[in-house]
Amino acid sequence: MSRKKSITLSIFAAILIMASALFYLPYYVTKPGMAKELEPIVEVEGGYDEEGSFMLTTVRMGRANIYAYIIAKLSKYQEIFPVEDIRAEDESDEEYNIRQLHMMDNSKTAAIEVAYKKAGKPVEYAYKGVYVLRIMEGMPAEGKLMPGDLVFEVDGNEFKSSDDFIEYISSKKPGDTVELSYKRNGKTNSVKVPLKALDDGSDRPVVGIELVDDKAIDVEPEVTVQSDEIGGPSAGLMFSLEIYNQLTEEDLTKGYEIAGTGTMSPDGTVGRIGGIQQKVVAADKAGAEIFFAPSEKGAKGSNYEEAMIAAEDINTKMKIVPVDTFDEAVSYLENLKAKSS
């Protein structure tokens, strides 16, 4: 083979490799992420310090190219999911990220409420408006509103819930125009949007957005949770424990490195999450000594059972603790013997 032909083939192979790396398959790959200490992220004004630490655990996720797909197939703690299992139909990257961040905000708000009420502190809410999660393709809001916008007035009228907003829009007719006031990136704007009949036979007028209520929680002392780069609701339990620990004089960590996962409802219920085994691996690598896992009231195939399987497989010394509620997690820590120095 001539030198010129060899160089040409090498260049062609390099281009082919680069092209295949940039070509995404209709799958997502998840793998163990990290265990992140919460004290630098959560700050209660005048809060108490802690000897140990609470940590949230994460799963890394990304679209799969051919190489990532093959590696995941061969890896024990990497999982492959079809796109439709992760994202809604026709959901854009921006809309998916907005949805994940909003779920994190809801989880954070619930965690604050649960922790403050447990500490005997008053909690109040202020309604902000409706938060735009998605824009329906071919509907009036397309090109006028964006995911992440906060709509707070319609035709100059404030509303107290998303139900009020929907009721007002439904009182109009297809073809009518409404003026929506909204906030985007800290700036206030307004836009006129013609209503269109929903294509489901009901002839109901719609703007064409998927929305949820957006509320601000008001507590004293103030709390700041810097979670801008973290998506999803699974850090709720650990947020609530960190916040509560800063609110109360007794240090619940007692010198231990404590990780865990689980959604948090306003009533203190700890809910199931995805990627539990990958989070156990991440927590073990970070040196966690205790790991809280949703028990799901002892249901077969619960997060706790899955966590125990992974813990035994990787031969970790980390103790896996099942919890159904925030109170159960607090009670476990209150009864925990302090770590000897």
Automatic annotation (TrEMBL):
SUPFAM superfamilies registered for this protein in UniProt: PDZ domain-like, Ribosomal protein S5 domain 2-like
Domain Lon proteolytic: 229-336
Active site per the UniProt annotation: S234, K279
GO biological process: proteolysis
GO molecular function: peptidase activity
UniProt catalytic activity: Hydrolysis of proteins in presence of ATP
Keywords: Hydrolase, Membrane, Protease, Serine protease, Transmembrane, Transmembrane helix
PROSITE patterns xref list: LON_PROTEOLYTIC, PDZ
Pfam families given in the database record: Lon_C, PDZ_2
Membrane-traversing stretches: 7-29
Residue stretches making up the PDZ domain: 111-161
UniProt keyword GTP-binding, yes or no: no
EC number: 3.4.21.53
Family classification: Belongs to the peptidase S16 family.
Protein name: endopeptidase La
